[in-house]
Amino acid sequence: MNHKLKGLFLLLVVVPAIIWLSVYLVGSSRPDQVQKVGLDIPMAEPREGYEIVYPYMYDFPNELTISTITHYEKATYYYLSQKRQVVYRYDEHRYLELQGENCEGLMWYHDDANNIHTRINIPFFTKTQLPTFHYYNPGKKYIAIPANDMSFVLYSLDQGRTFRIGEVTSYAAMPAERVERFIGVDDSSLNVTFKDVRKSDPNGFMNTIAISGNTGYFILNNGDVLFGETVLYNHEALRTFEQAFHSLKGIDPSLIQQKNPNFKGMQFFGKYWQIYHNPNYLERVQAARSIRPEPYQGWDKIRCVVGTEK
User: Fold this and answer.
1) For the whole model, what pTM was predicted?
2) Which of 38, 53, 108, 130 is the Cys-Cys partner for 97 at CB 3.0 to 4.6 Å?
3) How high is the pLDDT of residue 29?
4) What are the residue ranges spanned by the domains of the chain?
C-alpha cells in the first residue's frame, strides 16, 4: 500500500513540480539566450563613412524620433552617407537638401538669410515617398514637405527651425496621380465657435478656438481639396500644434458622432466636426482651389537624380 501511495505522490506531485520547474527555468533564461544568439532584430554593423539611423522609434508620447532600437518590430535601420544634393528651392535663400544616396535619406531645410539649417530626423525618405506632383510653398513661416504616398506631411510653423509630422486621415488620402499640386501658405488665424461638452456639464457649452492659417492644401485633379488643420487652443497651457489633413467631401456628421468603424479617421474630428462646417472656414478651404503662387521664385517640383549627390 505504501508503495502505491509513494507512486501516486510521485505521479501527482513530484513529476508536475519537476515539469513546472523545468518550464520556468527555460522560460526565464530565454531572453538572455535570444540576446546572445541574435534571434532578435540584429544590431547593425558599423560601416566606415556611414551613419546608422533607426527611424520611427517612439521615445516620447506622440513623438517620432531617430533613436536606438526600442521595439524590434520598428527596428528597420538605414546606412546614411554624408553625401547630399539639393532637391528643391523655395527661393534664392531657402532650399531642401537630401542627405543620403540613391535619392533616399534625410531632409535638410536651409534658410541662408536667417541662418537656419535644420536636419529633419524624421522620417527617412525612400524613393517612393519623394513627391511627384507639383509642389509650391510661398509661405515663409509655414513650411511643409508632403510624402508622395500621403503617409505623412512634414510641417513647420516657425520658419523651418523645427518640424513635426502631420497625418493624412485614411479616408482622405489619395494616390499621387490624383494630386494636381500641394501648396503651403501663411494666412491669419480664424476663430471658430462651436458647441462643446464637459464631463461635468452634459448639457454642453459654446467654445471658441483658433485655427491656424499657416497650413497646406492638396489640390486634386478633379478640384477637390484636402486641407491641413491646426487647432490652436486659446488657453496657453492647452495650446497644441498637431496638424492633420482632411477632406470635406462626403462627411456625414451622424457617422462621425456614431464613430462608425468604416470611417476610421473621421473619429479624429470627434466633437469638433462643426468647425469644418463653419461658413467662414468652409469658404477658406474652398478658396484654396484658386490660390496661385505666381510670381513664385522657387521650383515647381521636387527633383532628385540618382548619382548626382556630392
Assistant:
1) 0.73
2) 108
3) 52
4) 1-40, 41-81, 130-290
